[in-house]
Amino acid sequence: MASTGNGLRKSAHVLFIQGDDNLQAMLVGAMMRKIKSRNWKKQRYFKLEDDFMTIWYQSKKAGNVRSTFSVNDVEAVREGHQSEVLLSIADEFPPDRCFTLVFRGRRGNLDLVAESAEEAQSWIWGMRKLIENVENMGEREKLDQWIGEWFKKADKNNDGRMNFKEVQDLLKMMNVDMNEHHAHHLFTMADKSQSGTLENDEFVLFYKMLTQREDVLKVFQEYSVDGQKLSQSNLEDFLREEQLEGDDIQLHAKQLIECYEPSDKGRMNAMTFDGFLMYLGSAEGSIFNPQQRGIFQDMTQPLCHYFISSSHNTYLMEDQLRGQSSVEGYIRALNRGCRCVEVDCWDGANGEPIVYHGHTFTSKILFKDVVSAVGNYAFKVSQYPVILSIENHCSVEQQRVMAHHLNHILGDRLLKTILDGKAPIRLPSPEDLKGKILVKAKKDGGLEQSLSGMVEDSLNGEVSDDDEAAEIDEDHPHHESIHCRLKKSKQRLSKELSDCVVYCKSVHFTSFKHSRIHSKFYEVASFTESKARKHLRDAGAEFVHHNSRQLSRVYPSGFRTDSSNFNPQEMWNAGCQIVALNFQTAGEGMDVNDGLFSQNGCCGYVLKPSFMREADVRFDPEMPQKRDHYHPVVISGQQLPKVNIKEDSIVDPLVRVEVHGVPMDQAKQETRYIENNGFNPMWYDTLHFTIHTPELAMVRFVVEDYDKTSKNDFVGQYTLPLSCMQQGYRHIHLLSKDGTSIPPSSLFVYLRIKHLE
């Protein structure tokens, strides 16, 4: 296969590697140690394949099977002792020989030790160049790469050719249930050399015949005068009538031709079918409005006017009872744009506070290591503030150690005083707090006393008001065994730690009436999910109003010991800002969370709708039609084809469209399933939804493999805010269960949104 993979992309790669000694060294390969723990260190031979996309490795033992991974799967390279595993062997191997490959999604890191510092540098810089190359690939290059990968899978004997038996195996891998006669017909048509095998351009031709997009061709021909190309004027008509574009269509059509038309002849003010296909498959042709990808919202409102991406028990990598605790949890959450992380602190040995899930068998990590990780990664993907939500069970002595670490490690990034020295009347904005880390915890007194310097060391303050164990007791008073095992801490609070809290003072919630009269804008109440639901049911409008003035945090029930998640949408409906989820657990809850925060630059802050921010507006999520400026919408979408959704078995795909929003908007509809076609099924089903509060609605597209005897298998999904959806003919690029892209898997839809009067 090697010759075909290179044949498809050779010219690009010759330029790519010329003069790059690091990539040349990777092509030769190197023996390195793969490290899993202090006691598990095995030698493996690592080598970059000549497709410049695949790395394989195997042990020294003869006959061992090679393992491979794709450069596509690698998110970043960390240099030196930048993982817990490599830190544990720091006394054995110097940092200049160590590096970590960080994979996308929830896959574990790969920790490696090279034989020399020079070899480590070759792999570190070589990998970074390969990652950068993948990120900068255009649509055509990505398609070339994908075709090359399929050829490689099909070419079992690695002779650079594909016989008919290999073609049949390829069709099965691609989910194409095609009869042998038709498959042989396509094979013969592609075999221009009549050699009985396919190579290079013949395979590309075979692939094009296999993936002929009749659906897109039909749309193309509706606007093309000669069926061969779209003139710039034809393209303008398509953008105006189907894509509902209004701003400077003439300029945009010209730019699209320049950007996506592959042929030089075609680029003369016209777009061929290949160019049209490239445009519809690009970011501009996707369902997500590119103008809302970057930061486009007003970032100068008070913190309580934003939904804030938030993690629960951030240190846990697995379940809540026996799982591993790791600083990696903080790194991964922060790198996903999370802006509020949780730290459960307990007294540790040698005077050093530790972090773990108290009264369980989860492993323990040092508080100072958590603070260091937060300091190092807080602002890698977003400059907006990070909130450290501290659940504190430590003695006064170790609280002082905590305060020391916060001050010493974070330095000026830790917010220690109010911003302008004057008594504020509302929370500062994300813009005001850029580059700052805020501590949310118990505090003696309030901002007023802090300003006047009247606060003394507390003698009776309860350390923690966020103790989740206590919430289990309150929700289930009859669970005596739990009640005995999980008791609420009542310890003194040190002045040093109290002084680290400025705008996020943790308080116990009494009632909305009490809050209206007594609460301060800088006070934060925490609710277990069941308590939040009860308040939402009993006094939804009051809850929304409360959250227009101050922050609220909601976290999963203590009975979710498997680290499962609730759907955050129901809490956003009440205007709750800090809706904490178990980031380590894939599923609907995290899909909806990722969908909301995929807008506005993935910065972790999304501005709430105006009717949830204004104190004089009453919004009840149970009765959305009663608000001012009520404008419901109808969305309708037609499911068109899908390309390549699942390997190794023929699937029966169906699409489910879910709307998550206020209770009146919650809805699900499914297409029928298509038998034995996971490669290019066509549904042509039309689904309609009426949405009463479009500003809060999230839309989730799920592809499943239908199974009449058991639960359907998940294939892929994509979730986004309704407000970010583009109308017209759009591709939806599906994500895996882990939230990583699975190119070129996509749905093709036709979407319309109509306002009801």
Automatic annotation (TrEMBL):
It is a peripheral membrane protein. Residues 142-177, 178-213 form the EF-hand domain. One of its GO terms (molecular function) is phosphatidylinositol-4,5-bisphosphate phospholipase C activity. Residues 613-736 form the C2 domain. It catalyses: a 1,2-diacyl-sn-glycero-3-phospho-(1D-myo-inositol-4,5-bisphosphate) + H2O = 1D-myo-inositol 1,4,5-trisphosphate + a 1,2-diacyl-sn-glycerol + H(+); a 1,2-diacyl-sn-glycero-3-phospho-(1D-myo-inositol) + H2O = 1D-myo-inositol 1-phosphate + a 1,2-diacyl-sn-glycerol + H(+). It holds the Pfam family PI-PLC-Y. The keyword Membrane applies. Residues 497-613 form the PI-PLC Y-box domain. Its EC number is 3.1.4.11. InterPro entries: C2_dom, C2_domain_sf, EF-hand-dom_pair, EF_Hand_1_Ca_BS, EF_hand_dom, PH-like_dom_sf, PH_domain, PI-PLC_fam. Keywords: Calcium, Cytoplasm, Endoplasmic reticulum, Hydrolase, Lipid degradation, Lipid metabolism, Membrane, Metal-binding, Nucleus, Repeat, Transducer. Residues 24-132 form the PH domain. One of its GO terms (cellular component) is endoplasmic reticulum. GO terms for biological process: intracellular signal transduction; lipid catabolic process. It is found in: Cytoplasm; Endoplasmic reticulum; Membrane; Nucleus. Its cofactor is Ca(2+). The keyword Endoplasmic reticulum applies. Its main location: cytoplasm. This is Phosphoinositide phospholipase C. It comes from Astatotilapia calliptera (Eastern happy).
